[in-house]
Amino acid sequence: MKTLPFILLLLMPVFALTQSNFHKTVLLNGTASCEEAVVVFPLLNDTVRIDASCWLQFDTTTAGRKLFYCCVKDEQSRLYNLNDESIDAVLKISVPDTVFYSHLHATKICPVCHKDNQVIPLIYGKPGKQLLLQQEKGEIKLAGCIVSKNSPGLFCKRDQLEF
Known about the structure:
By secondary structure, this protein is mainly beta. The protein folds into 2 domains: 1-106; 108-163, no CATH class. The protein has helices at 98-107, 129-136, and strands at residues 6-16, 19-29, 37-41, 46-49, 55-59, 67-72, 75-76, 80-81, 90-94, 119-123, 141-142, 154-156, 161-162.
């Protein structure tokens, strides 16, 4: 498993007038170009590029911004859920984090709700009649035809999350 690049997350409280906002700062450190690094917020279907200075600050007061992962090229870090995790200062993130995703796929437990009763497989490729019927019954989710080595394999119906 490659351990470079490392992405560091620093906690940084930012105060705005009378209201306190909680922000995260993402710093990219390593040999990879920052031009290809992004932070993905899957619950918001939002992707934000890490700029040329190799850092990004984002507000975590929006619920969907508390769940994210980092990508460099076609490889991704583990999924971070700030509702579940206490991050005091610095967090070192490995890209890719194959151990994290191997565990999720083996246990079929959603990283958001921590349940397995609404997790179904994602199926790639052109579907036949049987797959279309399974999708109608909610047994599978069709995921399209384009597959990469890091394509998600599971879908949580409760959280509408592919992982």
